[in-house]
Amino acid sequence: MSVDTAATSLSPRRRELLDAAVHVVADDGLRGLTHRAVDRRAGLPEGSCSAYFRTRRALQTSLAEYVAAALAADVADLAEQLRGLSGADDRAAGLTAQLFLRWLDERELLLAKLELSLEASRDAELATVLTTSRSQLVGVVAGIMVAQGRDHATERAEALVASFDGILVAALPKPDPERRDFLSGSLRLLMAALGAPAGPPA
């Protein structure tokens, strides 16, 4: 994923520590996220992580921002590739499937995002970080809808982003050949449906 793009404003050491934190959360869940665990994963002396992220709260919040930025960078790249394509165009579903397969093959960021999203349901500060990121993502997708001349662009975009999340979660445990077929079929159905004319929102 576009970790490098997302981390351009970070110092090399902070980026190294947050990369390690992503792997810790992917392997052990958010409960396993400690300064010591990050230091061990990064191969750095004990105390390195706490020197940059003084508290676990600071580490967790910075990780949420880092993961959200990495995923948003990938989505922005995809939006450029989709420019001019309709939701019913098989190329749109194919390009989206390529990104999702990469996320699933390199699943650490995706797993970290899922762990952080669950925690955000109980943590207002974390929810703010992820809600801001999600709003930006919906805005990118809505922009594609507007460019295609679709009505109710924001409602469509919110439904599409939520549906993408569900498809990714459902695809995670599937074996590779089955996962590819599932993604391709699901995305074609979803994007064709959202590209169809919509009635007024309820």
From TrEMBL:
It comes from the Bacteria. Residues 34-53 bind DNA. One of its GO terms (molecular function) is ATP binding. Keywords: ATP-binding, DNA-binding, Nucleotide-binding. The keyword Ligase does not apply. Pfam families: TetR_C_31. Residues 11-71 form the HTH tetR-type domain. This is ABC-F family ATP-binding cassette domain-containing protein. It comes from Nocardioides koreensis.
